[in-house]
Amino acid sequence: MDRKQNNQQLKIEGSGVINAIRDRRTSVKFHLRSSTEIGIRTGDNGYSLLSCLRQLPNIRFDSTTQEWILPATYHHYVQAYENLLTSPYYRYVQCTPLSDIVINVLRQDQSAYIKSSSIVSASNTMDDDFGDDVTDWELQKADREAQVEERIYNNLKPCSIWNNLMEYQQHGVRKCLFLNGRVLLADDMGLGKTIQALAVAMAYPDTWPVLVICPTSLLLPWADHIQQWLSNVKNNHIRITLKGSDLFGYTPATVKPILTSSEDDIDEYTTTNVDIQYDTKNEKFDQPLFYIISYDLAANHCDQLLNMDFKFIICDESHNMKNPQTKRTKALTPLLQKSQHVILLTGTPILSRPIELYPQLYILRKDLFPDMHQYGLLYCNGQLTKFGWNYNGSSNLSELHFLLERSVMIRRLKENIEMDTLSLPSLVRQKVLMPIDPSKKRFLSKLQSDLARLRSCPGTEFICQQKSIELYMETGVAKIPAVTHYLHNLLMTTKDQMVVFAYHKAVLDAIEEMMKNNKFTYIRIDGNTKQSLRHELCQKFQGIKNERNETIRVALLSITTSNTGLNLQMANTVVFAELYFNPSQILQAEARAHRIGQLNTVYIKYLLSQDTGDVWLWSLLCKKLQVTGKVLDEKSKQFYLEST
Fewer Cβ neighbours under 10 Å: the N or C end of the chain? Predict the structure, then answer.
């Protein structure tokens, strides 16, 4: 019995509880649990803080994680910090506060109006008269919201575009205006980011003309969207750069505007001239109102664009600036930081890892994200290697999501928007197993074994990369007979239009040959398709410009060159003959058909083969998707496949 008591006493002393009680010390650690909650963990002897904790407003205890939970607001954080650090029960409280960048964002939610700026970091000083500051913040916030509503009332509500916005889109525009038009609009693919960006531009007519920077394949679609949604902007008010030697020298074709469904609104809309807040007698009205240019040409002509002093810039598919070391990103960053309003549009702000997000954050909020190295250490698990710092990892993803949501990012997912509002049918992913020749399967198995062996050896990263590419290519080639046979049967048994994605030229060529031999109508867009033809081919598939009035059965597309900006809602089947390394590009490709305007359930069919590179690549995609999901949506994502 005595031995048992002695062992228990040693256990207690070893835990530090006895020493903590004797020295009257303890520890407190604050951390972000989610974008809406702050967690508080107390150390040894922390039970004496119970009276302080229970006095805090809106606090609760999580018995599962053994920590106290507060709302993630500046006021709650300051009050908790002050109460705990001034507890009369301790001589010393060792506190781990929230990171400085999180505190700054919490403060800026309300502290643009709080006078003191020295609180709650490593020091233990606190603000006095905090309650008065909170009241002042609430008044200032209400005033800011009133200014936003006034801008909407004066500049947007008289225009047809406002009535064409869905409720969630109107909310997105309001938030863009509340953030002073410097935002990362990262709505899920197909939710109408373009029309929201144009509505925000309409709210700032004094900052026109507008510069639009986008991928080359979207130059002409952007000209169409502008004319469709802004009735008073005609084709002669738009200038496009199609080649570097002719800066903004191309005028697009005329496109009819889209009218609202309300007859009363249409009558007023067609008899007034309010969509553009320019005096038609003013010479400026006859000048270009929109300038559209690709990323690469914008980088090449950055000096001229800087001299044009654009105050409102829209960057579509802004993840094209994911690498801070490229010429494109380096050239465009000063241009975008100089502009008063910048709207970055992308459904996939990061393709694989958090470091890809940094250039966009640096453009929008240099004050919050001034140093890439610090960002890399905090959120990319930065590691010093013999080749320098490596930021390809991920860490503190909940905190990063919090910073995005509170400071720059507006993001809604299809699954979180009421289906009645969105009128978007469901999406079903299916796995279809492809048989391959036994000899090719043995060859692929040997490649996988060699790759696994190399990965276990240090210093073989480059060789592993080459082997992975070889395995990827050989898997695609090995699947060609099964893929073409499956597509032939699918086309023979249905009359629906479909989109087929592949990566390797050999696979695309084989599918195209099968369709030619069987006289299936199709379009093909890959890296060799001229930019001027891509828009025309998409319209042909959609039945907009089809002189023969024939149904185009298949859109055969390259994953990397056709996964963004194309609207192919006429198809309700999307087939992936091959996978790709980035989950975000796969999701972008799916969204070519599953977007606003789609009327039928969309079936996504992944043609996979067992014991090939598909198995390894699918596992890699799922791991990357979990990381991107935690950063952008605060939850792990996964591809869920039905077997057929």
Answer: N
Tokens of 287: 């000048």
Query: Structure pTM?
Result: 0.74
Q: In this structure, is residue 585 part of a structural domain?
A: yes
Closest CA to 102 of 87, 85, 81: 81
Position 419 scores a pLDDT of 54
**Percent of the chain, pLDDT > 90?**
27
- Least Cα distance to 165 among 564, 602, 596 occurs for 596
**Residue 461's closest CA among 373, 355, 386, 395?**
386
Give Cα separations from 44 to 16, 19, 114, 155, 453 (angstroms). 6, 9, 35, 59, 47
pLDDT at site 480 = 93
Q: Which residues form the domain of 104?
A: 19-137
Residues 412 and 555 in one domain: no
Say if residue 404 is in the same domain as residue 548.
no
- Tokens 């799916």 correspond to 590
In a shared domain, residues 318 and 457: no
Q: Do residue 245 and residue 282 come from a single domain?
A: yes
* Cα dihedral sign, 583-584-586-591: positive
Q: Are strands 60-62 and 67-71 parallel, antiparallel or unpaired?
A: antiparallel
The pLDDT of residue 14 is: 38
- Residue 262 falls within a domain, yes or no? yes
Average pLDDT in the chain: 80
Q: Which 3-state string (H, E, C) describes 269-338? A: HHHCCCCCCCCCCCHHHHCCCEEEEEHHHHHHCHHHHHHHCCCEEEEECHHHHCCCCCHHHHHHHHHHHH
Residue 300 in domain: yes
**In this structure, what token pair is assigned to residue 4?**
């048992």
Task: Output phi, psi for 68, to 5 deg.
Answer: -95, 145
> Is the domain of 196 the same as that of 91?
no
